[in-house]
Amino acid sequence: MIHASLHWIDYAIVIISVLLAVFVGIWFSKKQKSTNAYFAASGNVPAWAVGMSMFATIISSVTFLAYPGAAYGGNWILLVQGLMVPVVLVGLIGFIVPLYRKVIKLSTYEYFERRFGAFARIYSSIAFILENFSKMGAVLYLMGLAMAMFMGGMDINTIIIAIGVVIILLTYLGGMEAIIWMDVAQGFLLIIGGLLTVGMLFYLTEGGPATIFQVAGEFDKIDFGPYTMDLVNTTCLVMVLNGIFYAVQKYGTDQSIVQRYLTARDDKNAKKASYLGVLMSVPAWALFMFVGTCLFVYYHINSGMLPQGIKDDEVFPFFIATEMPVGITGLIIAALAAGAISSIDSSINCISACVVEDYYTRLRPHAGDRSKLWVGKISVLVVGIGSILVALLYVSWGGQGVLGSLFGLYAIISAGIVGIFLLGLFSRRANWQGLYIGIAAAVLFTAYAVLTSKPFDMGGGEKQLLIDLGEEWNFNQSTYMLGVYSHLIVLVVGYLASLLFRTPLADKSLTIYGYLEERKEEKKRGE
Known about the structure:
The chain is mainly alpha-helical and 527 residues long. The chain has 20 helices and two strands. The chain has helices at residues 8-28, 35-40, 47-58, 61-73, 79-103, 109-116, 118-150, 156-204, 208-218, 236-253, 255-261, 267-301, 315-323, 328-363, 369-396, 401-408, 417-426, 432-453, 480-498, 512-526; strands at residues 456-457, 463-464. Strands 1-2 form a two-stranded antiparallel sheet. α4 (61-73) crosses α12 (267-301), α7 packs across α15 (369-396) and α10 (236-253) packs across α11. The longest helix is centred in the middle third of the chain and has 49 residues, at 156-204. The radius of gyration is 23 Å and the shape is globular. The model has no long low-confidence stretch (mean pLDDT 90).
């Protein structure tokens, strides 16, 4: 790994930007008197700030590093997933946002219970918690690796603990309102970091932007192919299908996004915030893809400047460490830290909200708001410390190792969450009996697909399939298709199985049909 020593100005920029998070947490701490304030900012945040927060939460430091690496080594095919987000959500946001604001108190998964019973709620809630625990540990670990390289080989454990403690302080003291306003600052910092990088690459590349676009065109770097009907490899078709379900998953079933609907002042502002978050994310993803393309052209023209054996996702950090001038280097590293903070603080707060609403309130239905707030704050501490420990374990094992493999298995016990949501949304005939059969089918399929296609490190350092049925019977399609199939299985099997049980039709207000009926009545009154 290449190590670079930062100038004191760069150190100062990074330290000030990180300490700003603590200051913001302290600033908003006096307002945290209730669970509504702590988890939903008392429903009093401007739409533009909520939208910016959604954007910053989705664009993590992993995106900051992974997208340039993917575009450097290949093309822009990963962006296809993001392009599907506005396509899918333009019509759905207008219904999803007011539905959640009307139906739930705090937890996304309360809707699942009202539609299909307690098991659906617990199943979905556990899936969210496991997914975010694995994500938080990975984000902290990868950010620590990158920042250790920038900071002259500083101990990665020190970096992880320092950033982790800052995130815990911000989240514990300031609640969701502090998180949102910090996200606003960090979102702008991420955008500035990307734009400064592109500007420097334009300046440093001989021939400037014209050369970059010419060489990129010659090597098909700004491309979304292959365009075959192949589902085995990562093709444009695979990413389109995956992107459709990714869009619904993020804006329809993810607590970290749905919880932000509740922070807006009313339905209209919540919808505006959602549209803003969606429309900002796609250009940002494209920006970091373009960074990777520019890096490819720069090092193609200046061959021999990269160390031998450097990985694709290490090229951008190497460029920052060796080519960026004093001051700009600090801003970009601060943007990297900001991406980690804005992603993890949201996950911690939202997991804590689930702990309070999905579990504590169920066990103590008559608990007062003060005790709920206390449990929420304790949960923030426990979850935050847990995420640091996960990242430190990754460091001690030289990678995600066994723990990463265990987190990888969560896909088996969290299959088909989007399928549950869509089934409840579009079918009044669907019932809990049919859904549970659909979930069982999805879990069985996902277990087969994961265990026969994904090598796991279960100790000893060697990765191997846990079940090997041979080339003919192992799941051999793209891993991006796994989620697509699991959601479809829940949707189709759940609906067909529901027909076997005679139950009353679901409450219309919990489905899209209630929304359509309301719109029809509003139109009549308008006439």
